[in-house]
Amino acid sequence: MKSKGILILYSESAQLDYLRLSELCARLAEKHLGVPSTVVKLEPKQKNFRTFRYPNGELEGTEWNNIGRYSAYELSPYDETILLDCDYIVQSDTLANYFGCDHDFVCHNRSWDVTGNDVFRHDRYMTQNWFEMRWATVVYFKKSEHARRLFNVWRMVYENYAYYATLFGFNKAPFRNDFAMSIAHQIYALHVRSF
Asked: Which of 37, 68, 139, 173 lies in the 20 to 30 Å Cα band around 86?
């Protein structure tokens, strides 16, 4: 019988308690999906920062260390894994439908803004190159050769992020997992089709 579970990666932040967020995410995922979870603390190789805009227009900057998701393949103890952002709140059993699917790697290519402000309208495509954005918020993968290779490409994109930022015309800071995974997905899809 294949093992199934949730993997949540987090890094410490001076302003936000990502450990507590990860623990909450894990409890809710276990409750609604009926599988165990594993929470892993990452030590980021670099610091990342993000600016949040409040509805009144006020801006607030915060440390936001989300680097290292490309290592999820090695870190997962499960045959089938759902990798979740530590601030993703599971409220139903919908994600359980991924387990046992025919694909080795699944991620979303669309996002919705629950506030109705349509803040993701510019993120449907990856910059001016018009290939679809892939979202790293929720990722399903199996321990397979295809998934391992895709994660390796994701790591390679991270290690060469400044180059890809110049190539595809986006800012090299802050690092965005969504951009890195989108590029990795595109590279890997082209590689697989070339054989």
From this structure: 173
pLDDT tens digits, 6-57: 999 999 887 788 899 999 999 999 999 999 999 999 987 777 777 777 778 8
Q: What distance in Å separates the CA atoms of residue 41 and residue 12, rounded to the nearest whole number? A: 8
Place of tokens 């980021």: 44
Alpha-carbon gap, residue 81 to 148, rounded angstroms: 13
Tokens of 66: 């989300």
* Tally of structural domains, the chain: 1
- CA nearest 51: which of 109, 136, 119? 119
Distance from C-alpha of 65 to C-alpha of 155, rounded to nearest angstrom = 16
Domain CATH number, residue 40: 3.90.550
For residue 51, give both structure tokens: 């600016």
The values of phi and psi at residue 75, to 5°, are: -80, -20
Encode pLDDT of 102-112 as tens digits.
999 999 876 55
pTM: predicted TM-score of the whole model, two decimal places: 0.88
Which residue stretches of 79-138 are H helix?
Answer: none
Instruction: Write the burial class of residue 123 (CB in 10 Å: 0-12 exposed, 13-18 middle, 19+ buried).
Output: middle
Q: Which helix (H) or strand (E) holds 146?
A: helix 145-159
* Distance in angstroms (rounded) separating the CA atoms of residues 10 and 26: 12
Which residue range(s) make up the domain with 44?
4-193
